[in-house]
Amino acid sequence: MIIQMQAGVGKSDPRVAAVVEKAKQYRLNPLVHSEQGTHVGVVEIHLKDGDMKTSALSEHIFVALDGVENVRRVTRPKVTLSANGMRDGKHIKLSPSTLIGAGLPCQIVAGPCTVDEKTVGPIVKGLVTEYGITAIRGGGWKPRSSPYSFPGYGERGIRLLLNAAGHEGIGTVFTEVMESQHITAVARIKQEVGYTGTVVPWVGARTGNPMLLSELGKQYEFPVMLKNSISAKGVDDLFERAERVLAGPLYWNDDGTLDEKRSMVSGNDNIILCLRGTEKTDPKSSYRFRPNHDWAETLRARSWAPIAIDPSHSAGTMENDLVLKNIRAALQHDIDMLIVEGGYPAKGFGGTGFRGLCDAEQSFPLERFGEILNLVSEHNRAFKKQ
Ligand code: PEP
Ligand code: MN
Fold it and tell me: Is 178 a pocket residue for ligand 1 (Cβ < 6 Å)?
């Protein structure tokens, strides 16, 4: 970032000192250049990366300072995923005893698409007692393609989910948030039911609205999972989503200056990137979406964020064991987390035979979870993670 001072502002002007001070406050490295022509003298302050990257900061921090003529960016305004000097991979705490990230075992997160009263208890109980799975997923709000499809029980669903998780001593609960109010609703219900584990909100393939992503940047106490959008053409889609969470919300004063007190210097970097498939190009494919597992390689090369794969939504059906085949394919890559939809209780697991209200056709049966556990153990051995 280059800050050009107004003509007539000399090198030793206190207004230059103020810019330098501000840059240091933001852990940048300011270098003052002055050029004295025959006509006029110009001072420029070049802001180099220090502990903080210029790409991670808004130029509006400097625009309004006294004596500043112009602020020019020479680096894209991006908190790139590799900006924090954690190129070896960031570890994220799912619970006090479970971390995910580079070099650590791949963890399984499992549970229903939407939560309902009949099945949530037996599913959660089955996953933990039969298979030792201690991170679950479940939804209160679902963006459905059809307005006639079941959209989730909303807050009631979240309450059921957190109650069941608390009851079974589950350490981590993943749930989708579609708008900013859902974040506060989840936090409130968590308090009300006294759930002490970690709740990881996620942004789904259909709902990456910028306000919601910025709002998630405000949260420090929990990680955030971002799924790629259905129309994504490559990993930049995920990076753009992540960028807003990393930056957090910025606020402007009435006079057009950045409200530095309210704005975040940086947002939440506890981000998990999730590959869930993209629009399919082959209409005859048995898959519901085109699996994009191979993006894991690019994500690993270009970012430090843990990588998850959701094999359920791209498969879209359990017919011909497609979800299992898709899990096998996903595990060809060195991934940090597998998030699987499933667990509707079958007979023998206290089940009622009740069919899930959303995405039931792709739900992986509880009694077969051992097959997933075996594949994940193999993956962890292959990638020397345990
Ligand atoms: C889900 O996980 O239940 C879901 C709706 O996912 P996606 O946003 O990837 O479609
Ligand atoms: Mn689903």
Answer: no
What would the DSSP string read from start to end of 63-109? HTSTTEEEEE-SS-S---TTTTS-TT---EEEETTEEESTTSPPEEE
CA-closest residue to ligand 1 atom 1: 113
User: In whole angstroms, what separates CA 225 from the centre of its chain?
Assistant: 3
User: For 172-185, what is each residue's pLDDT tens digit?
Assistant: 999 999 999 999 99
Specify the ligand 1 atom closest to the Cα of 312: 2
- Alpha-helical runs (H) found in 143-198: 155-167, 180-193
Provide the total of helices (H) and of strands (E) in the chain, helices listed first. 11, 14
Does the Cβ of 113 fall within 6 Å of ligand 1? yes
Query: In 193-298, at which residue ranges do the beta strands (DSSP E only) sit?
Result: 198-203, 224-227, 271-275
Backbone φ/ψ region at 101: left (φ over 0), alpha (ψ -120 to 50), beta:
left
Which residues are registered as beta bridge partners of 324? none
Look up tokens 């792709």; give the residue: 362
| pTM of this structure | 0.84
* Ligand 1 atom nearest residue 274's Cα: 9
Are 264 and 242 a contacting pair, CB within 8 Å?
no
Tokens of 133: 């799975």
pLDDT digits (tens, 9 = 90+) for 262-317: 776 667 888 999 999 999 999 999 999 999 999 999 998 888 899 999 999 999 99
In the DSSP assignment, the letter for residue 265 is S
Q: Are 203 and 177 in contact (CB under 8 A)?
A: yes
